[in-house]
Amino acid sequence: MGLVLLLPLLWFVVRGMITRRLAVRLFVFFILGALQGGIGWFMVASGFRANSTAVEPVRLVLHLSAALLLYGAILWTAFSIRWPQPEPTAQTPGVRLTRRLACISIGVLCTTIIAGGFTAGTHAGFLFNTFPLMDGHLVPADYAQLSPLWMNWVVNKAAIQFDHRLLATLTALSIGAVLLAGLRKGAGLGPQAQNGIILLGWAVLIQYALGVTTLLLVVPVWAGAVHQTFAAVLLGVMLYVLHTLRRGRPQG
Ligand code: HEM
């Protein structure tokens, strides 16, 4: 990070090549990256305790979420440098609806990613290796085994895996709604936003298929790694779509 981020940043600042605002933002990214190293240490430390065979799922999810948050912020900054002005489209009801649906979709997607972290962290993917049924049921029989209910979402493997499947399906459906709203005749989106939405549709299909493949093959490392990586790709495409749909700021 020192080589890739800090040295070029200092060079750009010394040469006056970037604005002060951007320099501060990039420096904050550097600090957050260092903090991410700290969170990584905090996560790994939990795996070294006596009687522990793996890191704590909550810490793993914290590490995954913090990494993706930083990744998203860096990507958004890069998009804003590459495309400083939004596409010149009228703010039609179609554009507004697509933007609203895309905002809902990214919320569902982030929740799915968190649930995915719990699935990996508790090794819940090594059970119920059938799809769409889990042990012959759509909803596993011992979904609400623990009380209070929320405990099942972080501890009970059956519930954790079911939540991840359900949220993934909701992500796919909500992205489907973005496609319908954005590509409808007369929606008024520019070509960049339309292409982004088509890419988003493909990305969620691929990610869903990778998830089912990972599950049916009982989580070989390569499949788990590809599924995790593609979650980041999907999040990146989602951010790209939101970036193309953003409202323009008044000039000046
Ligand atoms: C929008 C769709 C999906 C997204 C964004 C998503 C995202 C994720 C993420 C971020 C992880 C955590 C990876 C890690 O930390 O190692 C994960 C794990 C997992 N996901 Fe998904 N997922 C999706 C769909 C699915 C589907 C449809 C299934 C199966 C029905 C599935 C099955 C799994 C399994 C079994 C794991 C655990 C893998 C392991 O133990 O390494 N996913 N998912």
Please render the helix and strand layout as text.
Blueprint: H1 2-14, H2 20-45, H3 57-82, H4 93-121, H5 149-154, H6 157-183, H7 191-216, H8 221-244
The chain binds protoporphyrin IX containing FE.
First-last Cα distance: 34 Å
Give the low-pLDDT segments: none
Number of domains: 2
Written as H for each helix and E for each strand, in order along the chain, the element string is HHHHHHHH
How would you briefly describe this protein structure?
By secondary structure, this protein is mostly helical.
Could you explain how this protein is built, in words?
The protein has 252 residues and is mostly helical. The protein folds into 2 domains: 85 residues; 163 residues, no CATH class. It is 70% helix and 0% strand. It has 8 helices and no strands. Helix 3 packs antiparallel against helix 4, helix 3 packs across helix 8 and helix 4 packs antiparallel against helix 6. 25% of the residues are buried. It binds protoporphyrin IX containing FE. Protoporphyrin IX containing FE binds next to helix 4, helix 6, helix 7 and helix 8.
Question: Which key terms come to mind for this protein?
Answer:
single chain, 252 residues, mainly alpha, 2 domains, 8 helices, binds protoporphyrin IX containing FE
